[in-house]
Amino acid sequence: MDLTVSLTCSALHKTFRLGHTDLEILRGLDAAFARNGVNTIQGASGSGKSTLLQILGGLEKPDAGEVRWGEESIYGWSRDRLAAWRNLTVGFVFQAYHLFPELSALENVEFPARLARRNDPAVAARLLEQVGLGTRLDHRPSELSGGEQQRVAIARALRNNPALLLADEPTGNLDTATGHEIIDLLLRLHEERGHCLIIVTHDDRIAALGQQRFHLEDGLLVSQGQG
Ligand SMILES: Nc1ncnc2c1ncn2[C@@H]1O[C@H](COP(=O)(O)OP(=O)(O)OP(=O)(O)O)[C@@H](O)[C@H]1O
Ligand SMILES: [Mg+2]
Description:
Elements: E1 5-18, E2 21-34, E3 38-43, H1 49-56, E4 64-69, E5 72-73, H2 79-89, E6 90-94, H3 105-115, H4 121-130, H5 146-158, E7 164-168, H6 176-193, E8 196-200, H7 204-207, E9 212-217, E10 220-226
Parallel strand pairs: 3-8, 3-9, 6-7, 7-8
Antiparallel strand pairs: 1-2, 1-4, 4-5, 9-10
Helix pairs in contact: 3-4, 3-5, 4-5, 5-6
C-alpha cells in the first residue's frame, strides 16, 4: 500500500435538525485515507456512514471541519470547481444502483463522460467488458439482474478514471454470493487502477478485506487497525 495520503478530513461536524430535535451525527471526526488504499467503514444503522461518504465525496457540506484532497480544502472551492472535481475525481456506487432506467447499460456508463464532454462510447464498452457485461451493452436496467445492474453502476463510477471510489453498501441489495462477486470485482478493479477505495458495509467479512478498517461510532471514526 502506498501510504501517501490523498483524502483527509479533520474536525468534521454535522448536525441535522428534525423538527425541534438536533441530531448530532458527526462530532469532530478526523480521518486519513491512503492514496491507493482499500478502506472499509462499519457502524450501526443511523450512525452517519452515508452522511460521511457524501461529505467526503463533495456532495454535502459539513457544518464545520475540512475535507482535504491533497493540500486543498474542497469546500473552499467554487461550486463549479467542486462539481468538476466530483465528476472527474470521484466515483460513487450506491446500494440501490441508481442507474437511469431509460438509458441502456452503455449510455449509463457513458453518462459521466458526456457531462465532462469527453464522450467516447468505445471506452464505456471496454469498461462493460471488464465488468463481465460485454454482451449486454444495449440492455436497460430493467432487463438486468441486481448484480448486473451493480456491475453497470461500477463501470459508470469508473468511467472518468476517478482517483477516489466511494461505495455505500454496494452489496446491500444482493444475495451473499452475488455480493461477494461484486466485492471481488471492486478489489480486482482497484488492483488494476490503484484508486483510493472506501467501502461502507454491514458485512464483517467484507470489512475484514480492508487494508484499513474503520468503525463509525458516537460521531467519530475509530480505526480498527490494518488488515
Ligand atoms: N438530509 C437529512 N436530513 C435529516 N436527517 C438526516 C439527513 N440525512 C441523514 N439524516 C439522519 O442522520 C442519521 C445518519 O444517517 P445516515 O444515512 O448517514 O446513516 P447510516 O450510518 O448510513 O445508516 P444505514 O446503515 O442505515 O445506511 C440518521 O438518523 C438520519 O435520519
Ligand atoms: Mg447508509
